[in-house]
């Protein structure tokens, strides 16, 4: 099995993952945007790889400006995922803190 075929087949589990986390409604929105951004990264990287092969005669990894641009986008999507989970943890701690402190009667 070629690496291209394996890459194409790996998209199906990821699409399933996106479908389930979207339907669950439990994923922090910002993290969900980051996961969808990763899918956009893949969609953009494929034509970039083809462009690198046709225009430069080499793989995307060997064209620094093109590869670096793609990696910056991937980094931004990863930051969205981390910030989304960070925000969810902070909100969860705040809710738990508010529930555990009894209100004082006046």
Structure overview:
With 106 residues, the chain is mainly alpha-helical. The N and C termini lie far apart (72 Å). The longest helix has 37 residues, at 64-100. The chain has a domain at 30-97. The protein has helices spanning 3-24, 29-56, 64-100. The protein contains three helices and no strands.
Summarize the helices and strands and which ones pair or pack:
Blueprint: H1 3-24, H2 29-56, H3 64-100
Defining traits:
106 residues; 82% helix
Rg measurement, Å: 20 Å
What's the main sheet like?
none
Helix and strand content put the structural class at: mainly alpha
- Compute the average pLDDT: 90
> How many H/I helices?
3
Taking the alpha carbons of the first and last residues, their distance comes to 72 Å
What would a concise description of this structure say?
This protein has 106 residues and is mostly helical. Helix content is 82%, strand content 0%.
């Amino acid at each position: 099995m070629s690496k291209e075929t394996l890459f194409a087949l790996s998209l199906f589990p990821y699409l399933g993952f996106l479908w389930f986390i979207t339907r669950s409604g439990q994923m922090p929105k910002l993290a969900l945007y980051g996961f969808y951004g990763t899918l956009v990264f893949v969609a953009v990287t494929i034509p970039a790889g083809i462009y690198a092969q046709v225009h430069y005669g080499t793989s995307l990894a060997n064209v620094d400006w093109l590869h670096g641009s793609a990696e910056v986008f991937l980094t931004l999507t990863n930051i969205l995922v981390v910030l989304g989970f960070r925000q969810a943890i902070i909100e969860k701690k705040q809710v738990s803190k508010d529930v555990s402190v009894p209100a004082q009667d006046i």
